[in-house]
Amino acid sequence: MEWLRALYASRNDSEKTKEALILRWLPWKYFVRRAARSYGIIDPIRLMARMRRFSQPSEVNEPIELLRAGIIFHARGLINTRAIQHNLDWVWPFWVQKQFNPDDSSFIPRAFSITHVNLTHRNWTAVGHPDLPLYPIVDPRGLVTPHIDGWSLDFWIVDKDGEHLLPSRAQQADQELRLESDLEVATQVRRQGRDLRSTTRVEVEENAPRARIRINAESSDNAWLAVSIRPYNPEGVQFVEKLEFREKSCSWLINGDYTVFLERQPEKILHANYLEGDVLHGIQENDMQESYKVKCPTGMATGAALYRLQPGVEQELDISVPLGGEKAGTTGRISSSREAWKRSVQGTAALNVPDKKMQFIYDAAVRSILLLSADDVVPGPYTYKRFWFRDACLMLNAMLALGLDERIEVQMDRFPGRQKYSGYFHSQEGEWDSNGQVLWIMGRYQDFTGGRISRDWWKAMEKAVKWIDRKRMTSAKNQLHAGLLPAGFSAEHLGPNDYYYWDNFWSLAGLRVAARIAQKGGDERLAGYISRIADSYHRDIQKSIASIPERRKQGAIPASPNRRMDAGAIGSLVADYPLQLYPVGSTEILNTARFLMQNCFHRGGFFQDMIHSGINAYLTLDIAQTLLRHKEPGFRDLVEAVADMASPTGQWPEAIHPITAGGCMGDGQHGWAAAEWIMMMRNMFVREEEGGLVLFSGVFPEWITSGQEVSFGPAPTAYGTVDLALYREEGQYFASVQGTWKDGLPDITIAVPGFEEVRTTDLDRPVQLLPV
Question: Model's pTM, two decimal places?
């Protein structure tokens, strides 16, 4: 395929245009149908037409970006089908050991599955440097994948009798994310007198980033510490065709490109190709000759470096993997990892609460947001290491709440370059939410920082507004979707292509913000023009919702005007959080939240039936935000449930398997979920509402009475930056609010649970709190 791509790329534009026209004139449907009939295969054109009848007619049926990603994902699944089930005596990653084990709750029968993919334990944790988009990941049993979508390193304690300590097969393991100096994942596995510990982090040596792994191994009897090169990662097989151990540099060369350095020479080096089986087999049978290189046309080469373990004597070994700073576009001096993390975290909004779990998850979430915004903001270090406006804008919102102004500006300066000439901010074709999201975050940036809207941003804003106005279906008179955006694809997995309120609420909010930006910028004409569009749009949305038959909407807001109430209605709650398009107490918003909680929850969290088929931490928190804003009971239960869903390293996958509690969808470290946890903790202390600030409304009562000072800040808001604290002194309780305000003191409501609500304009001294 590479030669074909190169040949096409070498042709000039005129030749490509002629070829494209010729291809367009060809009767492709006829050719495909005739070929299918000749082989007795179902007509694919007719099948696709049938499938599309489940959707509303739309410009784009399936975005090419997602088709491409899906093809790559399932191509690996096809390889997994060939490689794994026929070789279950190999050492496979943790998810395979669970998902292919009929005695385990993770087991999935494979009978008619065309591809075998990780659907039960999509969990991993990235380490890295806040200024480098390089993300080595560690799975729940310590398997390290240094390079994106690459091979992995595993670590074992083995002996000739087969009494091995193989972490991926271990029932229990201890894992933690250490935040004290940089970012380090520590894993420990123990079994029958054997103890294996590993730590993984990224360090900068001689201005080059490296993954640094330290192994500590101990055995009560004679054994070997094995460092093994594995042709897979947490998604499945990743080919290793050539392995060579270079004694002089004490390193492996993998596929002629990547290097792994060992601290000292091993006592044995073993390699195996696919026909010989896993290198572990040779260790067990003790009949494999030492070898320093291997080639495997199948791409399943394995290698092991063995270090002798004396009874009761701990062995320590350092392993270093260069990560290729030049591939990350790094120039100039790179700060040490420790320096960079200290600098990046300094000055961000800090949380201080007695609940150690929630405290740790918040601190881990801050690091995740910093890590995943080292270059483009991406919602994950592996599967989702790609840019989408939706995820980026919601992660930027959390970054605003943390006070990361400079980092945000760098990100947003790239947005105009991603805008099409038409004004469309293109994440993936056929999805219509991004224009509204970009306009909204642009306004949030201006509100929080007071920063000027640059000329490039201003032009992009005007083009985005006009795109929304042109895109609306104002000619669809007397239809439920009149005035809404066209039916679109939902990458939020709200259902088949439809006229989603999610897209329309975002676009309406974006227009409102754009009008405000124009007003602040002194362009009354433009502000009036945008406001008129927004007012018309708002009427059309409200008319559409009002026209839905009551038996379908049940007093709430479905995902689209054509849908009954179902899990897809989660998208409509965006009108409340974060957009605040509805007032506090809105019955439509509350009915939507209540429906979801009564019909779409599992084990305390929102269960997304569509595609995800798992519990979503980030969407559960969105419902919790609505309950908090509307002073509804139950928000705390949702927050605690999400905290309980976090992995030992403080991470959530995009969706969580309802039985295994492992990841079943998306990236194993979801940046959007981390952003929502930051926003949840922040809004429990401070949130904007109706021209003022509501303080402390989500603080847990036992935090206040614990005797420990409870605090949050410095916290940027639309009105200025505040430092907040609750404390007890001589048996009385006080709230301290120290602010640097932009345009005078806003309306302040101190609403500490269990105490009388206080509205005040005097913050020169702490406010005494009186129990209810």
Answer: 0.93
